[in-house]
Each structure stands twice: as C-alpha cells, then as structure tokens.
Design goal:
single chain, TIM Barrel, 13 helices, globular
Length: 329
C-alpha cells in the first residue's frame, strides 16, 4: 500500500496490469445470470457494531486470461469462508479495472466489495465520475488512498487535480455520496513519512475528515502493531483498526515487498525462512504457521479484524482462516 499495502504488492506482482473484463472459470461463470442486477450491500462500518472481528480478503485486477482464471479460482475457493468483505486494489493502469472488478465481485458473485481509489493522479471530475459509477452499481464502501507518486517526484503536487493526500480525498468521497470510507494505517510508519508520530497525525486527520475505519499495512511483528495502536488511540483515534496480514509464500517475493513498503521481517523469522529457501513447500508451511500464530495473538488482543493480502491466491488464506475458525456461517 505505499498509500496502501496493495500499491506495493501491485507494483511487484507480475500479474498486475490491465483488464478486468476477462473470462472467469466455468464454476463461477455458470452461476452468474446473463443480466446482472445491482446488489446494494451494507456499509462495512455497520458490521463493526456486531462487536466481533471482521474477516476480509484483498484482490487485484488481473492482466490477462490466465491471471483472471487464477483470480476467480481463488475467489471460488475463498467464498465459502463467507468474508465480511473483499477489497479490490487499483493497479498502475488506472481506475476502470478496479471499478469493473468491484462491480463484478459484488453484483455477480454476491460478495460485499470495497474499491480502492487513489487520488494523486486524478482531477475532481475524474474522481467524481468514478464515485458515481460505484454508487450506481450499489457499491457503498471505498478505501481512500493517496496513490504512488510518479518516478522521481519526491512529494505530491496538487496541480490541476486538487488532491495531494488521502486527507483531501476522504471529505470529497463523503460529500459526493454517503460512502463508508476506510483509510490506510502504517504500524511501522509510511516509507515517505519523517517519523511514526507525524504519520499518526496524518491518520488522525483522515479520521477527522470522515474515515470510518483503518486497514493497516502488512506487518510481521505484532509488537510493532500494539505500540502503534496504543499511540494511535492515545492521539484520540477511536475508529476500528483492521490488521493487514500477508501470508509468506516466497522468501524472495516477501523481501521485495517489505523493501518497498517499509515493513520488516523479525530476525528469527528471517533466519528460519532463509534456511528453508530452497524448499518452497517448507517456506509455504512456515509462512502459514507464522500467520496463524500472529493472528491468534492479534485476536486475543482485541483486533477489530483481519484483512488478508491474498495475492490472488487462496491456499494459504484458506488454511489460516480454517485453523483460526473464522469461517462465517
């Protein structure tokens, strides 16, 4: 997420690029009616009133038919877990694939969906059109993000867009329609922020502007999350905070992710993973084991929800969710 975890993940993952209007596997396609009706799903903030931890998954628009088949197979396998919502990231090619996939997941597959919207590349008219499109399609939940800066640009420049940060986007979204707005949080600090305290001040501004909940950047050390959550709450932020969890599937891939998004791998975990690097199955098993332990402790310490960065894959997330007994009925 260099505005969110998804931005970092999308930049690295080779499957990210273009299109959402590509075929799904037969198991999904056959269940979809020829004419898709709009299904208005409840706002995510209403779910927190049930006083239980939420379960959610993140996906990105695929670039081709092979990527689409992988994505919809993962959704097919994760849907029986009955997530409270899924989120759809914005890729480097624009907003339209995000809008299309969000619509498809919610209105064809019947899963509450939230669209990631980044503002730094868009004018108010463009952003308004995207929000109108989501609203007309029954989508009521948006994750408001700044977005990645162009290469070589050190700081956001409003220019003709009027948007520099997510703090500019949140009130715009709320004024356009009555969306539930989520924002990103960074337990180890945003990579481009001077320090964690300043970063928390920015988070507080996003909440004051109308954000209803926070989803964090991925992290692997719960102690970092607890320190950050305490500091966030001490600054007066009281909205629910959902922990971002990325199961480790590959040592090299995970190192790239953490290098981009500013997270770190605890040294004992790093040593264990490196000792297994030549055996992908053992790495996968160790990643799942760590995620289960991490999530069990987070749940025991009152986390508002778990948001899994699936990388459009399902096996690890299914194993973790089932072990945690988080499947919804």
């Amino acid at each position: 997420m260099t505005s969110s975890t998804s931005d970092a993940v999308n930049t690295v993952n080779e499957n990210v690029a273009v299109v959402a209007a590509v075929p799904a596997p037969a198991s999904v396609t056959n269940a979809v009616a020829d004419t898709v009706s709009v299904v208005e799903q409840p706002r995510i903030d209403a779910l927190f009133e049930q006083h239980r931890p939420l379960l959610s998954f993140e996906f990105f628009p695929p670039k081709d038919g092979a990527g689409s088949e992988l994505l919809f197979r993962a959704i097919d396998e994760l849907k029986p877990l009955h997530p409270d919502f899924v989120s759809i990231t914005r890729t480097g090619v624009g907003t339209q694939p995000t809008l299309d996939l969000t619509h498809r997941v919610q209105n064809e597959l019947g899963i509450r969906a939230m669209a990631h919207l980044t503002c730094v590349h868009h004018t108010p008219d463009e952003m308004g059109d995207a929000l109108d499109c989501l609203w007309e399609r029954g989508v009521r939940n948006v994750l408001a993000l700044r977005g990645d800066l162009p290469p070589g640009q050190a700081a956001p420049q409003a220019g003709d867009s009027g948007f520099r940060y997510a703090t500019d986007l949140v009130p715009f979204v709320r004024q356009r329609h009555d969306f539930c707005v989520g924002v990103a949080g960074y337990p180890e600090g945003h990579p481009q922020c001077l320090n964690v305290t300043r970063d928390i001040e920015y988070l507080n501004q996003k909440v004051d502007a109308g954000a209803s909940f926070v989803i964090t950047q991925l992290f692997f050390d719960n102690a970092d999350f607890y320190r950050w959550r305490d500091a966030v709450q001490a600054m007066g932020v009281t909205v629910p905070i959902v922990a971002g969890i990325m199961p480790i599937l590959s040592v090299a891939q995970t190192k790239r992710f953490v290098g981009m998004c500013g997270a770190k791998i605890p040294h004992p975990l790093l040593l264990k993973l490196e000792s297994l690097e030549s055996d992908p199955l053992s790495v996968h098993a160790a990643g799942v084991e760590h995620a289960i332990s991490q999530c069990e402790e987070l749940l025991a310490n009152g986390v508002s929800g778990l948001h899994f960065y699936t990388l459009n894959r399902s096996k690890a997330t299914v194993l973790i969710t089932q072990e945690l007994k988080l499947e919804r009925q």
